[in-house]
């Protein structure tokens, strides 16, 4: 399997490229609209066709590249079960697998940042945690039907129960960190280590973060698979 | 072996952490002064002591964290042979190995960006290319005794002769790319693919780049292993 981590510095978003090198087919997870050209160039150079674009959730801080990539490559757009995106080709359910040759991507329902967030476990060895779990952090829970208690349950019961050696690849990082492990996060993530559910809820409720700059544009666009409203109407 | 790629967004620099998990000892390659606190925290959390700080070259775009890390941890500072840094504990020669438990780091003289630049091949499987080779790019050659012809020779005769599957980890990236391979760079790096030595020299001679913002501060500081002049005098 080929695995590549790609970064969008404007939104601090990680996009992941998985590919089966025999099939020469790829999956992009959480592509970013502004990076579509970069990602297509890389696919072309690696001799890969794009089978799927997969979203961990409906993003509020960037517009997904899925719509444009689907238009240009004919790939399938996959979103999590219950995500409000009728435009998607497929909704993936909790514990359902997306298979591509030697690659098995298992969906793990991890709501809390949004009400329909999924993490994806790749070949049992690395988990793309989206905005549920960051390296020494986690996604916010104060909009898009977010819920701190539910996020606490998702992280502690669905992610922290994976083997300690499982590699953690988040959808964002703001401090130059690229990878961690479940064992490390259980021990050192300051949002969860040594906090019970109540304490976590209280902490998250007092973050008082400003809305993401692109939120008013990004959420409705992402509910249309990343097509900007002006383009559609 | 533990391997971590860390990023400094201000200077777009990658720092690499290598560690032998039995010895619980680590090497940092190209640490950045402003990230010393982050790096020390990570070492502490991973239960690692810092054995060595290793530089690919005397940097012009950021101040190395080596001086501060050496002061705080007692690690050894290693620079490449001929690098003007008398403060270093050791100068590493071309083809010399730095060994730490299960880790073997082989120095590969790759001058051209500077006259004393080294790449480092880690356990024969991944090469930290410093500023000699970037993902689809390369370091500039217009200061610090840089020489485009010599860089062309370094890259084509010392790096592109490594096995195609060797992973390429550069010291900088400006487009959100984290890793490549020698095979990919031979085929797709626009600075080298399809260019002969003369054509490369001509191309590099016409880049007309502005000096790095921190150059006047960084070069003299890095010749003192990263201690700012004001601190020393």
From TrEMBL, chains A, B:
Short name of one Pfam family for this protein? Lactamase_B
MF terms in GO: metal ion binding; sulfur dioxygenase activity
User: Could you tell me which InterPro entries the record lists for this protein?
Assistant: Metallo-B-lactamas, Mito_Persulfide_Diox, POD-like_MBL-fold, RibonucZ/Hydroxyglut_hydro
What CDD domains has UniProt attached to this entry? POD-like_MBL-fold
Instruction: Provide the GO biological process annotations.
Output: glutathione metabolic process; hydrogen sulfide metabolic process
Q: Which SUPFAM superfamilies match?
A: Metallo-hydrolase/oxidoreductase (SSF56281)
The cofactors required by this protein are:
Fe(2+)
Keyword flag Oxidoreductase: yes
Query: What is stated as this protein's family in its record?
Result: Belongs to the metallo-beta-lactamase superfamily. Glyoxalase II family.
The protein's name is: MBL fold metallo-hydrolase
Organism of provenance: Waterburya agarophytonicola KI4
């Amino acid at each position: 399997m080929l695995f590549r981590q790609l970064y969008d510095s404007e939104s601090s978003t990680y996009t992941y490229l998985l590919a089966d090198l025999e099939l020469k087919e790829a999956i992009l997870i959480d592509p970013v609209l502004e990076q579509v050209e970069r990602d297509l160039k890389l696919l072309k150079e690696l001799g890969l066709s794009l089978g799927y674009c997969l979203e961990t959730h409906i993003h509020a801080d960037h517009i997904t590249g899925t719509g444009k990539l689907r238009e240009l490559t004919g790939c399938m757009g996959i979103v999590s079960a219950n995500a409000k995106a009728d435009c998607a080709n497929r909704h993936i359910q909790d514990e359902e697998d997306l298979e591509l040759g030697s690659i098995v991507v298992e969906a793990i329902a991890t709501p809390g940042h949004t009400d329909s967030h999924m993490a994806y476990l790749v070949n049992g060895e690395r988990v793309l945690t989206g905005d549920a779990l960051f390296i020494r952090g986690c996604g916010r829970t104060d909009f898009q039907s977010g819920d701190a208690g539910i996020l606490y349950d998702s992280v502690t019961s669905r992610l922290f129960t994976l083997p300690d050696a499982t590699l953690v690849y988040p959808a964002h990082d703001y401090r130059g960190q690229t990878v961690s492990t479940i064992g490390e996060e259980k021990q050192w993530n300051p949002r969860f280590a040594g906090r019970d559910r109540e304490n976590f809820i209280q902490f998250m409720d007092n973050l008082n973060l400003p809305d993401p700059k692109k939120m008013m544009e990004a959420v409705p666009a992402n509910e249309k698979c990343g097509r900007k409203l002006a383009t559609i109407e």
